[in-house]
Design brief:
By secondary structure, the chain is an alpha/beta fold. The chain has 3 domains: 219 residues, Rossmann fold, CATH 3.40.50; 236 residues, Dimethylsulfoxide Reductase, domain 2 (3-Layer(aba) Sandwich), CATH 3.40.228.10; 133 residues, Barwin-like endoglucanases (Beta Barrel), CATH 2.40.40.20. Strand 15 and strand 16 form a beta hairpin. Helix 12 crosses helix 13. The radius of gyration is 26 Å and the shape is globular.
């Protein structure tokens, strides 16, 4: 039996292998709270769903018009590697020559591997850039609205991720920690690029032991651990802005707003004040007004506002809040509320985003930018908002507004997808299926027969991280790990790098793509460039040979108790923000000049398109679709560990017992969840610690529509969500805004 170190986006593990079979997966000593998601590796890597050899969709291969409407339903023909590579290369060249490179969409979502070299997105982009470029997606499904709004208001998004106030600071100085959207522990299991130490839950427990009081503002009590003893306020989903406005009104009306800070460090507060008091629209944003919208009592709103004004208070919002209609507004309003408290930049006070969203948020590790595979430059320089893929495919030549400019959709003739599963991330999957039929060709690199592979024309079987060597290291983790190949490539699988080498050879630029380096030489190159960067920062990395032998390296300790924006607070002229004014822009002249009705010049309550007050009696339940507990996104959904968390083979739908009783439903029932966009099955679980008007169905079940009825059979919530941009500003996804109904499923699957 041999032991191999493997790095994933949800932790670092020692994988025990006997006779080329995985027999055990163990956490490492450096991790205080190992995520049990690692158990997906036991049978997920060598699962029957592996793609065994290159495959071509029969209709694409044999039909003169390629029968594009058969994607997702057609059978596949196995072909030799050389033939598959030649077919794909010929098609890539044809499309680029006939329609231009913007007609090629290179899709990838970056979570496929924690390695620095075998990173599917980097490999795809390097390849496509060398053949003339493509159309790409910009921003992320996780934080698209935040990535666009916050630079106008506060600071670039990277600062939000990596430079926020540390939880160590919270432990030492915070008195009241108010979490809009809660602090869901399940999300803190993961981090892009990998995570060695799972510390979020430990640090939050330390904060509670130190006397920090927590407030969980979420429709679901479980969004914050009960051991933190949080005060639970349960607003209607999508109404957090109204609640924040009610809190702000109390501060303003009672003379508790930090007028000095608002004057010295902010711009635009007078316009915000007029809006709060109703001077411009005749509607005062009082606690009573807010209560009628959000469902939290006016007394509770007033009490919380007064409490925040008298204690060292830290405000945070989950990433989920900005994934809804007008998703820019809750983040903008939270900054406004924090500014009114006047504690931004003080120890333990202020504002932050995404605590518990990923494992690294709020950690106090040394930040170091490790070298990566060079991707080069996209010659087309063309990109669309990530959540507008279906729009792009369905509406070539039309314009979409984005951050003050119009983007014209290209006529997409070819999709190349490597890393990620759009039939998990995207909203309104039935619409995506229709859009997916339009391109001439879809090429996919994928280890398993996932939905994106099933909806492709040319499928290349790709290796997993256990079937190759790599380096795991990220800018938010203090460790680097050498990932030693534990298994031979399964069946005929090749790494993404090898696949692109083969295509580059067919297209005549293999030497440029490989830079005359094999896998080991690339790993040495990445390490050597990292060594040079380390020397510039005053420390030394060991040699690559030593690192490879030892298997692990820890960066020098740089303990810090970071108060984000402390410098700005001390001297806003010397340490300005990256906004046009250099200050917090509670009113943005830039955004106001865009003249967007769905994103005005200051934080505003804008009614969601779908919510229970919008006279939609049939679809009377708010659907929340959080990250799953037993996997990352849709990865390894086929594994026994993921499947063990399901009911009757379906993803779990959690409902309040009284809401279930109204529908004559019992725990364990197989239910149909539906609206006008689609329907899916789910297994019912009951929980009285959530709003009665709210149901919860995690994302990530592999999309499996019934061929006869279209009913999605595994419990994928994105057959229900609306494919609509957050606003004209960011065009982010709106998965958080959705109404559904639930009924007993009485037919055979």
């Amino acid at each position: 039996m041999k032991r191999f170190r493997n790095a994933t986006q949800w932790g670092i593990y020692d994988v025990l292998v006997d006779a080329d079979r995985i027999v055990d997966v163990q956490g490492i000593g450096e991790d205080p709270e190992t995520s049990d998601i690692g158990q997906v590796l036991l049978d997920g890597v060598q699962h029957d769903t592996r793609i065994k050899r290159p495959a071509i969709r029969r209709g694409w291969l044999e039909s003169p018009n390629r029968e594009r409407n058969r994607r997702g339903a057609d059978e596949f023909c196995d072909v030799p590697w050389d033939e598959a590579l030649e077919l794909a290369a010929t098609e890539l060249k044809r499309v680029a020559d006939e329609y231009g490179n913007t007609s090629i969409f290179a899709g990838s979502y970056g979570w496929a591997s924690a390695g620095r070299f075998h990173h599917a997105q980097s490999q795809l982009h390097r390849f496509i850039n060398l053949m003339g470029g493509c159309t790409r997606a910009m921003n992320s499904y996780s934080t698209a609205a935040a990535q666009v709004i916050l630079p106008h208001v506060m600071a670039p998004w990277p600062q939000m991720e990596l430079q926020q106030t540390t939880l160590e600071n919270v432990v030492e100085h915070t008195q009241l920690f108010v979490a809009f959207g809660g602090l869901p522990r399940r999300n803190a299991q993961v981090a892009y690029g990998g995570v060695t130490e799972h510390r979020t839950a430990l640090d939050l427990r330390r904060a509670r032991q130190a006397g920090v009081a927590f407030v969980n503002i979420s429709p679901v009590a479980a969004d914050t651990d009960a051991e933190l003893d949080p005060l639970w306020l349960a607003p209607v989903p999508g109404t957090d802005v109204a609640l924040m406005l009610g809190l702000a009104y109390v501060l303003e009306l009672n003379g508790l707003a930090a007028t000095k800070f608002l004057s010295s460090h902010c711009v635009g507060y007078p316009k915000v004040r007029d809006y709060l008091l109703g001077n411009d629209d005749g509607v005062a944003k009082s606690p009573q007004w807010a209560a009628a919208i959000c469902g939290v009592s006016a007394d509770d709103i007033e009490a919380l506002a007064l409490r925040m004004s008298t204690q060292r208070t830290f405000l945070t919002a989950a990433w989920s809040l900005q994934r809804g209609d007008h998703g820019e507004q809750p983040y903008w309003m939270l900054v406004t509320l924090a500014a009114m408290l006047g504690q931004i930049g003080l120890p333990g006070g202020g504002v932050g985003f995404g605590y518990s969203a990923e494992a690294f948020v709020g950690t106090n590790y040394k930040r170091f930018n490790w070298a990566t595979l060079p991707k080069g430059r996209n010659p087309t320089s063309f990109a669309i908002p990530v959540a507008r893929i279906a729009d792009m495919l369905l509406n070539p030549g039309s314009d979409v507004q984005y951050d003050g400019r119009a983007i014209t959709y290209p006529d997409t003739k070819l999709i190349y997808w490597a890393g990620g599963n759009p039939f998990h991330h995207h909203q309104d999957l039935n619409r995506l299926v229709r859009a997916w039929q339009r391109p001439d060709t879809v090429i996919v690199n994928e280890p398993w027969w996932t939905p994106v592979a099933q909806h492709a024309d040319i499928v290349f079987p790709a290796t997993t991280s256990l079937e190759r060597n790599d380096i795991c290291a990220s800018s938010h983790d203090p460790f680097a790990h050498y990932m030693q190949q534990a298994l031979p490539p399964q069946h005929e699988a090749r790494s993404d790098h090898e696949i692109f080498v083969g295509l580059a050879e067919c297209l005549g630029f293999a030497e440029a793509f490989t830079d005359n380096k094999d896998e080991q030489q690339w790993l040495r190159d990445i390490w050597q460039r990292s060594q040079q960067a380390a020397e510039q920062q005053g420390f030394q990395l060991p040699s690559f040979d030593v690192f490879q032998t030892q298997g692990i390296y820890r960066l020098p300790d740089e303990p810090r108790v970071q108060d984000w924006l402390a410098d700005f607070r001390s001297n806003p002229e010397k340490f300005p923000l990256g906004t046009p004014s250099g200050k917090l822009e509670l009113f943005s002249h830039t955004i106001a000049a865009f003249d967007y009705e769905d994103c005005p010049g200051h934080a505003t309550w804008l009614e969601p398109l779908e919510w229970r007050s919008s006279k939609r009696d049939l679809f009377s339940l708010h659907l929340l679709s959080p990250q799953p507990r037993r996997r990352l996104h849709s990865q390894y959904d086929q594994s026994s560990f993921s499947q063990a968390g399901k009911v009757k083979g379906c993803e779990v739908l959690t409902m309040h017992p009284e809401a279930a009783a109204q529908r004559s439903l019992l725990a364990g029932d197989l239910v149909r969840v539906f609206n006008e966009r689609g329907a899916c099955l789910a297994g019912l679980v009951l929980d009285d610690k959530q709003r009665m008007d709210t149901v919860i169905l995690p994302t990530g079940a592999w999309f499996k529509p019934c061929p006869e009825t279209g009913l999605e059979l595994n419990g994928n919530p994105n057959v229900l969500t609306r494919d609509k941009g957050t606003s004209s500003l960011a065009q982010g996804p709106t998965a958080h805004t959705c109404l559904v109904q639930v009924e007993l499923y009485q037919q055979k699957r």
